[in-house]
From TrEMBL:
One GO process term, biological-process aspect: medium-chain fatty acid biosynthetic process
Enzymatic reactions: (9Z)-octadecenoyl-[ACP] + H2O = (9Z)-octadecenoate + holo-[ACP] + H(+)
Keyword Manganese: no
The protein, known as: S-acyl fatty acid synthase thioesterase, medium chain
EC number: 3.1.2.14
Source taxonomy: Eukaryota, Metazoa, Chordata, Craniata, Vertebrata
EC top class named in words: hydrolase
Matches recorded under InterPro entries: AB_hydrolase_fold, TEII, Thioesterase
Annotated SUPFAM superfamilies: alpha/beta-Hydrolases
Amino acid sequence: MEKVISCFRRRPEAAFRLICFPWAGGGSIHFSRWGNVLSSSIEVLAVRLPGRESRAREPFLENMQQIVDEVLAVLLPVLRDKPFALFGHSFGALTCFAVANALKKLHHLEPVHVFLSGASAPYSELRRNAQKRSQLSDDDFLRWLTSIGGTPPELLQNPEVLKLFLPALKADLQVMENYRCEKPDRPFLSCSVSCFDGKEDVPHDLPAWRNITSGEFTIRMFDGSHFYLKDPGNEKILLDLITKNLETAEMDYL
C-alpha cells in the first residue's frame, strides 16, 4: 500500500479518510501534508501514480482503467473499513470520478462526500471539444504551462528538471484527453458533491457534475487561476470547507 498511497500522519481513530488524487504530472506530497493540517477526525491518504516520486522508475499508466484498477486493488480493503471522502484536482477530478463510479457499480461502496476541483465533467461538451495539450510542440506546451501558473518559473527554465517533469505531465494529459464516458442516465451517487475552481482559470463546465449525484450539489469559486489551491489563503478556506462538510457528514453517521 505504501507504494501507491502516501500518508504523512496515520490516524487510526479518525472518523473519516480523505483520499486525494493528484493533478496531471503531480505527486502525492501536496495533498499528503494536508494530514498535518486537518483535524484528528480526518486521515489523509494521497495517491502516488507510477513515474513520479518513489515510483519514478516505473512506466506510466496508459489509460484511466489502469489507474482505477491499481487504486482500487490497494484501497478497497481500507475503504470498507470506515467512511471516506474523495478529493481530486484537474486530472485528479476525472480520476476521482472514475474511481467513485467503479466503487459504486462494482463494489456498492459510496463516499460520504466528493470534492471536485478545476475540471469539467468528463462527459461535458466543453471537455470533449477542448484542445489536446499533450500533442503540442515542446515550445507551445511550455508556453501553455507558464500561462496556467502553479509551476515555479525557475523549474520551467531548468532543462534537467523539465526532462524529469514533462514526461509525467504529458502522460497524464494523454490519459485525461483519451478518457471518454457517457453522461449518466441517472445519478449513481447520493452523497454531497462540492465543486471548486479558480475565477481566472479557463472556463470549466462545473454544473455538469450535477448529473452524478442526487444529493446536495454546490459550486465555490476562488480568486486565482488553475492552481488557486496552492495559494495559502485559498488553501485554508478550502480545508475549512472540507472539514466542515465532513463534520456534517459525521453527524449523519451518529
